[in-house]
Write a structure and sequence with these properties.
about 0% strand, 2 domains, Serine Threonine Protein Phosphatase 5, Tetratricopeptide repeat, about 160 residues, mainly alpha
């Protein structure tokens, strides 16, 4: 049944996907797959609040559900809720450090004006998997920090 809901998401039939996920949840209210994908459907429909609630339900059932945690961090970050996003990314990193979690963490930190910490996260991401994109982001952030230091007369 979850797969039918996922199929509806892929077809941009979000309302129908919710019906499938609700059927699963009626019989298994702790189905992390149903909660997580229901969150995806809500997010695609533009309802970030309901999406986050669904991710939280998935995480209540399984606190180590990395997919729900990743989705929650993404939605919070996009919505400008950087502290919540940072918390999600930090948990992800504690379970499974990967490039995308460090980059998401860096973006949340930038949103909070914590640029030095953001730079550290990007450097950690590059140590896991170096790419031109990450190296460019590191260089931009270094230049930004240098410009700020110069404007403040620290250099």
């Amino acid at each position: 049944m979850v797969h039918k809901g996922i199929d509806r998401i892929k077809r941009n039939q979000y309302e129908e996907s919710l019906e499938f996920f609700d059927r699963v949840l009626d019989t298994n209210p702790k189905s992390t797959d149903a909660w997580n994908n229901k969150g995806v459907a809500f997010y695609k429909m533009g309802d970030a609040k309901s999406a986050i609630e669904c991710y939280d339900k998935a995480l209540e059932a399984d606190p180590e559900n990395l997919e729900a945690l990743r989705n929650k961090g993404f939605v919070l970050r996009v919505e400008g809720e950087f502290e919540g996003a940072l918390e999600a990314y930090d948990k992800l990193i504690s379970y499974e450090p990967d490039v995308n979690s460090f980059r998401g963490r860096a973006t949340a930190l930038i949103g909070m004006s914590r640029l030095e910490e953001a730079l550290e996260s990007l450097i950690e991401a590059s140590e896991i998997e170096s790419s031109m994109q990450i190296e460019t982001e590191i260089e931009i952030l270094r230049k930004t920090l240098l410009d700020i230091a110069m404007k403040k007369g620290l250099i």
